[in-house]
Backbone:
């Protein structure tokens, strides 16, 4: 008779997850920093401004994966950084499976419970993608990545990953006033970037709040109304077309949110920031080789490992007391930013 050990396995979870991913729209950061992988994660490969290695602070690898509930995402980060998190099958699901297994007539109900279990487990994998997007958007809105790391002592410590943007790439102005002139600001920043690097920004990212400063700006409204020869209401599409025609700039409004480890709903990209980008890719989202992939895939232990998205390891381990299966998601990942010199990060809520 099959058991829970035969049902909740890394390979089957991976197949289920990959099937679900086919209908998922990619995060913005995935298009700007596509996935790639290297053996281990040699720091010399993680490049920032001027091709220099990213400065990393780290702690030890000797930590256990924390068990979590289904809500939120709490992580353990160690050097490189290393993210891992685990989940047990719910007791009620396990007991229900025990009652149904062994009778072929119950297979539809077994499939339903199994799907519920897999849906729960894939929240770990979705949490891994959240962490990656969180790092990429923090990089684009601040020029560095700041996370908390738990070491062997279990104490959380800050880790900053500095991508060495020059001070000339970090500018500030005040767009909160409707009488400001954001078009002049943007044009100056674009010219300065082209003079500095030879590459002219063609795209920008901001949140809905920051976009609102442009929509409500009297200078922009006046020009659009003059072009339309009427007292019209300025729409998002009109503003998009205006910026494209006047500045050859496409603006992406990114107000997607995630839930922090503390359960707080937060923007991926910061409010009051307007970041100018060049055309094309900016870097890569690099995966390293996790200990689970390098040490457990040989089959020498009870653990089973499957890799998804190039570098996220799904590990299932048999628990004997009580009888259960623990599923763990882990990854070693960090973005590189080879074109860091070509961006401009503007703080547009900085009254002088």
Residues:
């Amino acid at each position: 008779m099959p058991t829970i050990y035969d049902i909740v396995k890394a390979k089957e979870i991976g197949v289920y997850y990959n099937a679900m991913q086919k209908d998922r729209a990619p995060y913005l950061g995935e298009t700007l920093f596509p996935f790639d992988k290297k053996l281990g994660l040699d720091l010399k490969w993680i490049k920032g401004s001027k091709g220099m290695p990213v400065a990393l602070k780290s702690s030890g690898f000797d930590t256990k994966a924390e068990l979590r509930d289904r809500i939120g995402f709490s992580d353990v980060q160690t050097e490189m950084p290393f993210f891992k998190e685990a989940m047990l099958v719910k007791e009620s699901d396990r007991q229900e499976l025990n009652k149904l297994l062994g009778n072929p007539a119950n297979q539809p109900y077994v499939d339903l419970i199994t799907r519920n279990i897999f849906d729960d487990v894939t929240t770990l994998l979705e949490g891994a993608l959240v962490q990656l997007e969180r790092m990429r958007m923090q990089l684009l809105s601040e020029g560095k990545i700041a996370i908390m790391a738990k070491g062997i002592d279990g104490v959380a410590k800050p880790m900053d990953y500095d991508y060495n943007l020059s001070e000339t790439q970090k500018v500030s102005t005040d767009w909160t006033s409707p009488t400001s002139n954001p078009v002049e600001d943007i044009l100056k920043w674009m010219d300065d970037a082209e003079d500095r690097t030879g590459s002219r920004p063609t795209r920008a990212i901001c949140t809905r709040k920051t976009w609102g400063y442009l929509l409500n700006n009297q200078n922009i409204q006046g020009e659009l109304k003059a072009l339309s020869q009427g007292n019209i209401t300025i729409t998002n599409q009109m503003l998009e077309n205006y910026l494209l025609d006047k500045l050859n700039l496409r603006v992406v409004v990114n107000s997607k949110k995630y839930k922090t480890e503390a359960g707080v709903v937060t923007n991926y990209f910061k409010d009051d920031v307007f970041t100018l980008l060049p055309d094309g890719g900016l870097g890569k989202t690099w995966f390293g080789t996790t200990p689970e992939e390098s040490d457990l895939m040989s089959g020498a232990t009870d653990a089973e490992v499957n890799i998804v998205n190039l570098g996220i390891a799904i590990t299932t381990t048999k628990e004997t007391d009580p009888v259960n299966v623990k599923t763990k998601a882990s990854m070693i990942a960090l973005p590189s930013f080879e074109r860091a010199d070509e961006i401009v990060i503007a703080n547009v809520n900085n009254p002088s």
